[in-house]
Amino acid sequence: MFSMSEKELGKKWDRCLADGAIKLGTGLGLGIVFSVLFFKRHTWPISLGSGAGLGMAYANCQNNLRSHYMLHRGDKVGLSMEKID
Amino acid sequence: MLRACLRGANATARKNYRRIPLTSLQQCRHYTAGESSSASKVVVAGLLTVSGGIGGTVLYAKWDHKFRAAVEKNVPYSDWLLGLALGPAAQDPGLPIKKRVELAQPPSMIEKQAKKEGAEGPVKDSSPAPSQPAQSLEEASAEATHIISAIGEVPSVPAPCDTEAAAVKECNECHEHKEATAVHPAPTEPMKERPVEEVAARLAQQEQEEQDISASVSASLEDSLASSAKATLQAIGAQEAALQAIMQHTDKLKEAMEAEVLPEEKSNQWKDLEAALADRTTALNDARAALSKANESLDSLRSVIDESKGLKISSVRPLVLAAEENLHNMVVDLDKMVMKVQSAESEAKIVSQYSELVNEAKRQFQREVSSLTPEIQANWKGLTGKLSTDDLNALIAHAHRRIDQLNRELAEQKVREKIHIDAALEQQKLEDQKALDNAVNTALQHVKEDARLDQERKLAELREVMEAEMRTQLRRQAAAHTDHVQDVLKVQEHELKAEAEQVLSSKMLEQETRYRQLTQEQLDNFTLDMNTAYARLKGVEEAIDSHVVAEDEARKAHQLWLSVEALSYSLKTAEADVPTVPLENAAQAVRDSCRDNDFALALASALPEKSLQRGVYSEASLRARFNSLRSLARRVALIDESRNSLYQYFLSYLQAALLFEKSQEAPPSQLSSEDLDPFKLLSYASYCLEHGDLELAAKLVNQLRGEARRVVEDWLIEARLTLETRQVVNLLSAYANAVGLGTTQAP
């Protein structure tokens, strides 16, 4: 109904942040777990995990933000107005 | 440098102010003086340079006007300065120069003319050349004045000219007329055609006059004839009497001479002779008087005759002729008598001469006798008894002597007699000759007179004959003339008839055409009137219909207007952040109210669907939304298809944080490429929004690209919707207003 395109970015950022938080947390957790379980409480798995998580979140965020500009497989580029609408 | 110096001075002044103002000042002065020496040098040098430059510029400008103009153009306030220094600009002297040039031109032109004329006639124009310019000027001025005066006089000239011309013409005509009349008075009379009665009257009048004149002439002639006849008769009688007296006298004289009668009878005879002489003289006098009278009367008669001849009237001529004949006869008789009298007179003269001679001889003898015998008395014949013998002897001797003498004288006389007779004969011959001449002359005159009279008679006869002939000829000519006149009249009649008929026909034609024209005009006018009336009627009908139609239209327009007003009101009742009510109903109402109005229908259907279904945002809400949008758009200003990594996002955010632009800036009328910067666009757009120009704001926002564009997309759509709807509603309301205005009937 009332589509506010200005809110989209905010939403994206929210998702980004949420995703980032989740991934970071998950990465951290997994890192901690793996550090505790398999890697004798070295910090490198934690940082690896958190870094991986952060990285994944960053990539996701970026992808998300870019998603509009990227052409997806199967998309037909048409010049109709409906797409914009 | 100066400023620094001043600042330093001030600072020191402020520092030293509290201490001693004077010294500070002095110190200042010192302080400044020290430095000012070099500064003054600099100042002086600068001033010199500047003044030198200005002076040089001024001087050069004075010398070179172009430079001055360039300086005035390029350097502001230099024109004031240069004007102050040098006086007004070089343009002013140009005017007097031009004037001088112009003034010099006419004299130069005149000189050129003079030169030309001088070139043409170099010989004579040497001296008049200088005067020619003046002359030409004068002439030109004179001509100019003439022209001006002539122009002034022109209106008045034609009038006198006309009258003069007319007068001249009239005069000419008069002269001509007079001349014609003077030269040909007689021919003009017959040239004018007078009516017959006038001619007849004139002729009758002329005849009457002639008759009167002839009567008077004849009367006068008769009178004069009678008087002259009487006088002539009297004269003749007198002449006869004179003749008789002369004859008597001569006879008596002869008797007295020849007869030897007794002395008493002699004395009687002498007495009778004297009486006869006296009678003769009286008779002669009477005769002479009568002759003179007769001559007078004859002269008067002749004058009368001449007068009547001078009248030249034909009827008088025979009278004149008769009078002339009578006159001639009388003159002839008179002359005859006079001749007779003259001959008798001559005879008597001879006789008297003879008697005189005798008397002379007698007297001589007596004288001699008396001289011889003085004592003897005069009448010696009666003295026979008294004489003595001596006396008788003496007397006889004397007588003898006398007889001898007388014999001698007789012989001499005989001799002389011949001579005398010859002389007398000669004399007689002469006198006879004279008398003959006179007679011949008188006879000649008479004959001449006779001949003349005959001639005149013949002339009169001839004239009559000629007159008669002329009359016949004239009659013939008159007849011919009448024939000719008749013919000519006939021809003229024909011609005139033809002309008149032509004129008549043309006039008739004219009249007919005019009549037709008039009727046509009337018809045309009538049809025009009818047409106008019909047209007016039609117009009135149409007006009424149109009124009805207009009222209908007005009603519809009202409805439309009302619905459109409702629509626009519904547009306005939009609260913030909430769109208006769906405009469907209002639009439907509008559509209903303009069912047969295509334009309005089209407009009504042009309302966007979304506005109908959903309603539109108000401008205020859009404005508020924009304000929040703005910051977001600023933040993603750097993001577009090529730059959309997270780093770019960071950079974009950083840019938005660091970049400051005016919150509202008036947009230029034309956007240049540097205005397409999103920040500027946003400031322009917010300015427009603040000033209520949503359209321009939308246009400006439309220029955003990339992510910013994506962000403001929805706002743009909403704005577009609102604008569209508003436009349509505005159009509709304008249309409704227009229709309403159109249908309202002005009072």
Automatic annotation (TrEMBL), chain A:
Entry's localization field: Mitochondrion inner membrane
Membrane topology: Single-pass membrane protein
Keywords: Membrane, Mitochondrion, Mitochondrion inner membrane, Transmembrane, Transmembrane helix
Entry GO terms, CC: MICOS complex
Membrane-spanning residues: 20-39
Cross-referenced InterPro entries: Mic10
UniProt keyword Mitochondrion present: yes
Quaternary data: Component of the mitochondrial contact site and cristae organizing system (MICOS) complex.
Family membership noted in the UniProt record: Belongs to the MICOS complex subunit Mic10 family.
Function: Component of the MICOS complex, a large protein complex of the mitochondrial inner membrane that plays crucial roles in the maintenance of crista junctions, inner membrane architecture, and formation of contact sites to the outer membrane.
Descriptive protein name: MICOS complex subunit MIC10
Source organism (scientific name): Haplochromis burtoni
TrEMBL record, chain B:
Coiled coil ranges: 389-416
Keyword Cell membrane attached: no
GO cellular component, one term: MICOS complex
UniProt-annotated stretches for the region Disordered: 113-142
Biological process annotations from GO: cristae formation
Domain of life (superkingdom): Eukaryota
Membrane topology: Single-pass membrane protein
Annotated localization: Mitochondrion inner membrane
InterPro entries: MIC60
UniProt biased composition (Low complexity): 126-136
Record keywords, A-Z: Coiled coil, Membrane, Mitochondrion, Mitochondrion inner membrane, Transmembrane, Transmembrane helix
Basic and acidic residues compositional bias, start-end: 113-123
Chief localization: mitochondrion
Chain's role: Component of the MICOS complex, a large protein complex of the mitochondrial inner membrane that plays crucial roles in the maintenance of crista junctions, inner membrane architecture, and formation of contact sites to the outer membrane.
SUBUNIT field: Component of the mitochondrial contact site and cristae organizing system (MICOS) complex.
Protein family (similarity comment): Belongs to the MICOS complex subunit Mic60 family.
Protein name: MICOS complex subunit MIC60
Organism: Astatotilapia calliptera (Eastern happy)
Gene behind this protein: IMMT
